[in-house]
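Good morning,

Attaching, inline, the backbone tokens for the sequence recovery test we're adding to the shared suite. The designed sequence is right after.
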């Protein structure tokens, strides 16, 4: 892939982030009290299965690639320990999310899926639906036969056109992704798609484009159903964005309880460490300010919205990874 050219989703012409912003976890650059989000319940627990990926997308928020192992493969035993904590603490966790990197590159992925489904959770696994996933066709068919629509595979299609998708993900990535999506649909899997839109496209225009794409391929994916199609806002940390103070909730007509970190956490394992830790958010696995501790109990405290992603993706963008 040509890494010298910019991503088609790059936020061009946007002022750079004011260096005075997002420095103090309690106070904004304007001196106002920074907003925070308390945990209301642990509805979704994410596991980052490792940052290794078969692709090296140009604007991957987690910098996944065939060489980035900053987050190493999480093991079946490590996942089991957190599921045991959920059971022992009687947490109201409904869903387990698996993300990467490409989750199907993790050698324990099928065992992890089987464990989570056998424990009664709904499972959402994020994939590019390419060769790593296709290597597990027989095992996936078995899981689907036993657990049905409690397992959802959400496929990333960056755009409804091949040219833009491949400008972001690399040559020859489009046909493989479409083929994987069609395989899942043909075998009755619960499927979803995550997309994006270009700067000059409205949300409605992009949804119409994806709807036409799905119709062309005979895929029964409703672009207006949040559980089956999500359109993610941009997450360029270096672009300027307003900080969220406590007064913003009323101004924006939003509630902290609706934010992703009110109901979810993500388990990660950093390279060179002995055990996983819990991050406040799926989007911020590297920032030490969002490392919440080793256990789910430790990670249940409030999260200070001290990062551009908090403002752009969650509060102003209204998005959620679940």
């Amino acid at each position: 892939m040509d890494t010298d050219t910019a991503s088609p989703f790059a936020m061009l012409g946007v002022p750079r982030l004011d260096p005075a912003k997002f420095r103090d976890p309690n106070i904004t650059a304007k001196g106002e009290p920074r907003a925070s989000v308390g945990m209301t319940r642990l509805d979704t627990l994410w596991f980052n299965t490792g940052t290794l990926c078969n692709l090296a997308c140009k604007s991957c928020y987690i910098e996944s690639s065939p060489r980035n192992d900053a987050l190493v493969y999480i093991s079946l035993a490590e996942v089991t320990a957190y599921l045991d904590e959920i059971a022992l603490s009687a947490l109201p966790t409904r869903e387990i999310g698996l993300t990467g990197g490409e989750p199907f590159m993790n050698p324990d992925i099928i065992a992890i899926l089987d464990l989570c489904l056998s424990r009664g959770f709904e499972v959402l696994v994020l994939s590019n639906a390419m060769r790593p996933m296709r290597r597990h066709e027989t095992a996936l068919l078995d899981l689907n036969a036993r657990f049905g629509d409690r397992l959802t595979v959400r496929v990333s299609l960056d755009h409804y056109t091949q040219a833009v998708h491949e400008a972001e993900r690399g040559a020859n990535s489009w046909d493989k992704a479409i083929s994987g999506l069609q395989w899942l649909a043909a075998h009755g899997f619960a499927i979803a798609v995550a997309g994006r839109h270009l700067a000059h496209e409205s949300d409605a225009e992009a949804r119409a484009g994806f709807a036409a794409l799905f119709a062309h391929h005979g895929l029964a994916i409703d672009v207006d159903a949040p559980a089956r199609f999500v359109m993610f806002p941009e997450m360029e940390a270096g672009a300027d964005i307003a900080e969220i103070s406590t007064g913003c909730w009323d101004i924006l007509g939003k509630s902290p309880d609706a934010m992703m970190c009110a109901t979810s956490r993500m388990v990660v394992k950093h390279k060179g460490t002995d055990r996983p830790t819990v991050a406040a958010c799926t989007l911020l696995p590297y920032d030490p300010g969002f490392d919440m501790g080793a256990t789910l109990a430790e990670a249940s405290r409030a999260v200070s919205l001290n990062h551009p992603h908090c403002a752009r993706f969650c509060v102003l963008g209204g998005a959620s990874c679940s």
